[in-house]
Write a structure and sequence with these properties.
This protein is an alpha+beta fold. Helices cover 40% and strands 27% of the residues. It has a single domain (1-9, 20-63, 85-120), classed as Alpha-Beta Plaits. The protein contains five helices and four strands, in the order H-E-H-E-E-H-H-H-E. Pfam families: DUF1330 (PF07045).
């Protein structure tokens, strides 16, 4: 399962609605020993979020779902607000950021990374 966006994923995202803030919904399923690796990634990623003007709006552990199909429960949920889609793309392409992505990739068995925009 893919846990990191590809170049074509990022290009498609930039074409959809490039202006205005975007909140990234992160649904995370950890590998058996992945929570500590992801925690270290999160600790190191804070400086990049600050550098690019992003902020964590919410981070929490998933509980037993009330309504979901089999296999749709997630270990954690994260909401991160970026000034715009271009800023997100620049951050994930940053060579220094790329140095810590192995912590994220190695800690995750499955992920959903979905850009969202506010309803008008």
């Amino acid at each position: 399962m893919a846990v990191d966006p590809s170049g074509s994923d990022l290009a498609r995202m930039l074409e959809e609605q490039p202006d205005g803030p975007v909140v990234m919904l992160n649904l995370l399923r950890f590998t058996p020993d992945g929570r500590s690796s992801y925690a270290e990634y999160s600790r190191q990623a804070r400086r990049f979020l600050q550098r690019y003007g992003a902020e964590v709006l919410y981070a929490g552990d998933g509980m037993a779902p009330l309504v979901a199909e089999e296999g749709q429960a997630w270990d954690a949920v994260l909401l991160v607000r970026y000034p715009d889609r271009e800023t997100f793309s620049r951050m994930v392409a940053d060579p220094e950021y790329q140095e810590i992505t192995a912590l994220r990739t190695g800690g995750l068995a499955e992920a959903v990374l979905q850009p969202t925009v506010p309803w008008t």
